[in-house]
Design goal:
Layout: H1 11-26, H2 28-36, E1 39-43, E2 48-51, H3 68-72, H4 78-93, H5 99-125, H6 128-138, H7 146-159, H8 169-178, E3 182-184, E4 189-191, H9 193-204
Antiparallel strand pairs: 1-2, 3-4
Length: 213
């Protein structure tokens, strides 16, 4: 029997459902802490500005999933319930052959959503000088030495002394290491696959704009 083509439009409800349910329930704690880190709200005559969150307070956490029974007892808002029902209808319309295929769709969509959320968070926090380091690393076959990376760091300090006044080189690198974007050995600093995927995400999401710091 010929395979039935699935219209692209059917994937959008699935993505929306997983993003809302997984992000709000599973990532409730990390998202709350991210909102708590927003500082310096200023209201001007024509606009509202928000202070930049601090890299020092940022964490990259793996969500701790609950048991099935406990997870399903978590309260849902009417909007979340509506998204869940729409997601169920989407799964039904896909004519999946087994529960294993349904789980596969859920895991794949969740992985895509989770990476997108993590990269969005990093995009909001990363300094321009750190982004410059990633751009240099992706163009080298064998990474960079500490001394060359240090020159990029010093450029950031010179251009934005108020941001990096108390930030040492090792601290500047640590956020990139903690976010999984680079690795560091005594011989070299190199970009990870995650770091390369992050740069591609910035281009695809049209977020590759110059940043301060």
């Amino acid at each position: 029997m010929a395979a039935v083509a699935i219209p692209d439009a059917l994937w959008w409800p699935a993505a929306i459902g997983v993003v809302l349910i997984v992000a709000i329930l599973v990532f409730h704690g990390p998202l709350t802490r991210l909102l708590d880190r927003i500082k310096g709200i200023g209201i001007g005559k024509t606009d509202v500005t928000f202070g930049r969150p601090s890299q020092d307070e940022a964490t990259v956490e793996t969500p701790q999933l609950k048991s099935y029974e406990e997870f399903m007892r978590l309260p849902l808002s009417p909007t979340q319930l509506a998204r869940e029902e729409r997601f169920r209808r989407t799964l039904d319309s896909m004519k999946l052959n087994s529960d294993a295929e349904k789980v596969g769709v859920l895991i794949r969509t969740n992985a895509i959503s989770q990476v997108s959320m993590e990269f969005q968070s990093v995009s909001n926090l990363i300094f321009g000088s750190q982004l410059n380091l990633l751009a240099r690393l992706v163009g080298t076959p064998a990474g960079l030495s500490d001394s060359i990376a240090g020159q990029i760091y010093q450029e950031g300090v010179a251009n934005f002394p108020e941001i990096h006044a108390t930030r040492k080189f090792d601290e500047w690198l640590q956020y990139l290491i903690h976010a999984g974007l680079i690795t560091r050995t005594p011989e070299r600093i190199d970009i990870t696959q995650c770091g390369q995927d992050f740069l591609k995400y910035l281009v695809d999401a049209r977020l590759a704009y110059p940043r301060q710091g």
